[in-house]
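Table 4 source record.
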Amino acid sequence: MAKQAAIPQQVVEDACEWAIMHGVAFRQADNTARHCPFSIAPMTMERPVYEHLLKVVPLITKLVSEVSEDPAFLQSSLSAMAKADPFFALLMSLHLQAHGSEEHRIEPAREPLLLMRTDFMDDRYHGAKVIEFNGIAAGMGPFGQRATEFHRYLKSQWPATYQEWAEEVSAQPAENHGLEQLAFAIATSAKKIQADFNQEGKPTFLMVVQNNEDNVYDQHLLEVELQRLGLRTVRRTFEQLSKQLSSGDNKRLMLENVGTIDVVYLRAGYQYQDYCAPELNETVCCETLSKTRLFIEQHHVAVNATIGQQLATSKTMQMLLTMLPAQEYARWGLTLEEAKLVKSVLAEMKPVSEENIEWFHAHADKQQWVLKNQGEGGGHCVFGEDISAQLNKLEPEEYDAWALMQRLYPHERERATVAVRDSQQTVVDNLMSEVGLFTAYFNGEPVTQFNGYAGYLIRSKPASENEGGIHSGKGILDSLTLAD
């Protein structure tokens, strides 16, 4: 339960001003900014749990990277899901056009840059388990690093307040270089592409964005860091790109009034509306703007996320990889030991079928499951008793768009803490946290200074809330300390 808090108003004002000053904010419709909701003190995790995740997360990324470059497997294993989900049908169509059929393989010219966030919850009984893979628009790495810096500032500037609300005062902050490492990975791949063309000057980074979105400061923090590393950065929507992209010599990607492009980073493209342009009056919805994505992949440019990466990080692929025996991972270059490490953090998942629906109604403990569709972001999960009602509504042809997953019940924070949202403070005594770990691989190889690991994002929420997104739910930005 939440109740009104009583930390000094001066601390709240200083904290909110720090957040705004350091770009930890969302843009409002009138072009003002409001601070991102945050916890006044960090969560604590047992160090061995964290170290296990650091060991396993690059292996997950290695696996997903290889799966994403296995077009025959993607096409065969996701075809049923694509028939049940119109958006993924679009992606699968683009993927087939990019790669050809199994008999007519085409090698796209793009080079895959996998910037991935793997989200975990540390379950009370089962340990840390994966919630989902995020391979497209896997943002908020900059906010993650800023949250760590923010709690360091509070500990220094307002030590009494920090100590009163920290979960464990003696725990040590986990290092977090999410902003710097993601930028390092992008800059490294940009310089590699530029070198392939023996070109001099600043490499150019293109961020594909949504029109009039509010989560822009996290994006701009990354751009500023890239500029510091010597890159030029530009932002465009798919609609703008549909008119402004062209081909240069040797499959060089060109942008009107800018020149050559070395890296394309999609912060859009995970939902139908990102490809919709009503004024085009298309006979086939979203064809023009989605073809822009296909056009990009036909050029020699580093891309995140490739269409294959988006398919490989879908909920259905997560389910398929969870259900596969560990030995099968050898297909994608993992040793049995590596495969077992990956399997150790995958929560049980089941396909939606007539048989499993009957089982769920008759025998399942409904509180131990969550029903998910393929959507990204908040609002795509069904919990508890509501699952039965949703399953009853589904037509058989819709089954493959959904999956049942073991519900995770993470440790609630042992001490209450203060959440600050819209400059208002609230004590929350049942806070639980979601841990997102960032990784970066380029052409199948780790491309950070930490063997592919690139920092973390902590989002906390009251245990009574189902939607924990900072942007789209009841979540608050948080950071991590480690207890020995």
